[in-house]
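Amino acids appear as letters; backbone shape is given numerically. Here is one record.
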Amino acid sequence: MAAMLGSLAEAQDVLATRGVALDTKTIRTIAYRYAARARLVQQVESTVFEDTVAGRRVVISSDGGRLRLREPKRGLQTQKGRRRYTGAWREPKVLIVYVVNAEGKREASFAPFIDATLKGPDAVFALLRTYLQRLAITQADQVLFSADGAPWIWKRVPILVHTLGLAAEQVHELLDFYHAVHHLGQVAALRKDWSATARTRWRTHQRHLLLQGQVAEVIRAVRDLCRGRNSKAIRTHRQYFIKNQSRMAYAQLMALKLPIGSGAIESTVRRVVNLRLKGPSLFWCRASAEAILLLRSYYKAGRWNMLKRMATSHLALLEA
């Protein structure tokens, strides 16, 4: 209930209708200990998953969400003796691993693996490495890394590929097509001397060029606009396309019937983070947020039984 519903208070109400009378403090304690035991077993256990990706087409994505952490603030306590705190925005890193069929659609028979952490990029890639090793990722037919242009993702992907021992012909790197189109729209918007129709026409033409694999033509078109008072901002967008040019093989990936968007991770961030941990006047202690992120990830992935096995395993109970 703590993972499924919007708050511990909602969980308390639903449990009460089922004849289970618990206060929110007890529900919190149970849920957080459950998550701690599951995470412990996940870190120390190295058995291979029952699921396999052998001969399958695997898509891997990562992105960041937003939530507010309750962090201690220096200074005197309040008149009621409470410690002051700041509500700083922090970015939990989220990952998803799923399988697509020959038509590029997600296989319903394979529940995705979803996880999230507030410990930073290295931590989420360590989690990702653990999942992929236990899924025997080297036996996959094709592996697609899909994400937006965040540098923290792409500078770690080659290291992960090397660590896993994946062959170069197995791996594809993809910059989400719709993020690239968004940048085209921003470039067009910087041309203040154009009409709305002219901006739309230019963006649509460049979009078609991207889909056809003519990324160099798009870069040239953006470069030609680097003049006038907004030239510096346009050069920033041009650099974005230059830096990610090798990840814009949209025509090739469409021919292989692989997805060219990262909608799966965008949806995952919304369902795991935004709908549970982000809201007005909602502040989290770091440990509490980590617990709910784990519980919510497995619940939304449809892998609650796997989490349950980890949290109630002999090893977890011994450590508890």
About this structure: Residues 1-44+285-320 form one domain. The longest helix spans residues 24-44.
